[in-house]
């Protein structure tokens, strides 16, 4: 058996960061995409690949104004690097499964955690009683996926370096307390333009999910110059205000389904706005096998009927 330590000391073996740069650039077809996937700068990826090419004495990529492509030597090296990293990843996963505590960390946004995940969690823990579950709440994808084994996130479903499985399609409609006064439930919801509307204050301004102007536009209703009502910094506060009878809020299914089924909230109008966004199961693409994650995925997909 070759002494790999001596090979590395002599400079015959590349560093792990160089291998990852080659694999990321080869799989994604460019240094910019590789840098985004690895969370580093493009110049750092270029430097790592230049160093490994110097060690090998040959070019792995052809560079042109249109981008980069693998050379024949680069294709051969990429296949071997992928195989080697896969073996290492599987070895790490096996050791973790044997020795690490059976702890599963799940990321999700505030409302989904409170009104969908937590009420149903006993069903999962009954199936997997040996798993110690932790839930981390965050409103945005990057925060929800960070330091988590798996997350349930909302958005368009395309995030660099993240593998996703769709759970549903964004479906939004107005809700309020059962005794809150409303207009007709059918037809155009134009009476809502004069109602007290509860809204989420966020820098996304409706680009990541429906806001009231987006809902009105989808319903074919002219957006009022001024929307009356209170704004809140997170969605659970919006729902709490609606539950307290203070106004009408937009709701996302399935986050509020339990509140509708229990009669704590009612639909204020029957029009439902839809988009191509939705909830997704998400985990890093480079994550190795994890039986706890796979068990949670199966359970969530079954709960959604997917």
From TrEMBL:
Q: Which InterPro entries match?
A: LysR-type_TF_proteobact-type (IPR058163), LysR_HTH_N (IPR000847), LysR_subst-bd (IPR005119), WH-like_DNA-bd_sf (IPR036388), WH_DNA-bd_sf (IPR036390)
Q: Which UniProt keywords apply?
A: DNA-binding, Transcription, Transcription regulation
SUPFAM superfamilies this protein is in?
Answer: Periplasmic binding protein-like II (SSF53850), Winged helix' DNA-binding domain (SSF46785)
Which Pfam families does the UniProt record give?
HTH_1, LysR_substrate
Q: Which residues form the HTH lysR-type domain?
A: 14-71
Family per UniProt?
Belongs to the LysR transcriptional regulatory family.
Q: Would you tell me the protein name for this molecule?
A: LysR substrate-binding domain-containing protein
Q: Which organism is it from?
A: Dongia sedimenti
């Amino acid at each position: 058996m070759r002494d790999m330590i001596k090979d590395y000391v002599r400079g015959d073996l590349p560093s792990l960061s160089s291998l990852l740069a080659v694999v990321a650039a080869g799989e994604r077809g460019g240094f910019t995409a590789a840098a985004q996937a690895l969370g580093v700068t493009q110049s750092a990826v270029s430097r790592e690949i230049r160093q490994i090419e110097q060690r090998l004495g040959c070019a792995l990529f052809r560079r042109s104004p249109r981008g980069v492509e693998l050379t024949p030597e680069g294709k051969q090296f990429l296949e071997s690097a992928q195989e080697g990293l896969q073996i290492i990843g599987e070895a790490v996963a096996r050791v973790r499964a044997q020795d690490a505590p059976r702890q599963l960390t799940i990321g999700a946004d505030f409302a989904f955690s409170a009104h969908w995940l937590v009420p149903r969690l006993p069903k999962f823990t009954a199936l997997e009683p040996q798993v110690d579950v932790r839930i981390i709440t965050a409103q945005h994808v990057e925060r929800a996926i960070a330091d988590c084994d798996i997350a349930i996130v909302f958005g368009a479903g395309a995030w660099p370096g993240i593998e996703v499985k769709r759970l549903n399609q964004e479906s939004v409609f107005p809700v309020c307390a059962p005794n809150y006064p409303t207009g007709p439930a059918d037809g155009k919801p134009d009476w809502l333009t004069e109602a007290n509307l509860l809204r989420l204050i966020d820098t996304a301004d409706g680009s990541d999910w429906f806001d009231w102007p987006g809902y009105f536009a989808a319903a074919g209703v002219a957006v009022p110059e001024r929307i009356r009502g209170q704004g809140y910094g997170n969605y659970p506060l919006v729902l709490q205000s609606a539950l307290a009878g203070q106004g009408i809020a937009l709701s996302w299914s399935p986050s509020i389904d339990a509140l509708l089924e229990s009669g704590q909230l009612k639909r204020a109008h029957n029009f439902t706005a839809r988009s191509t966004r939705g909830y997704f199961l998400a985990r890093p693409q480079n994550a190795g096998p994890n039986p706890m994650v796979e068990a949670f995925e199966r359970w969530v997909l079954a709960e959604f009927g997917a």
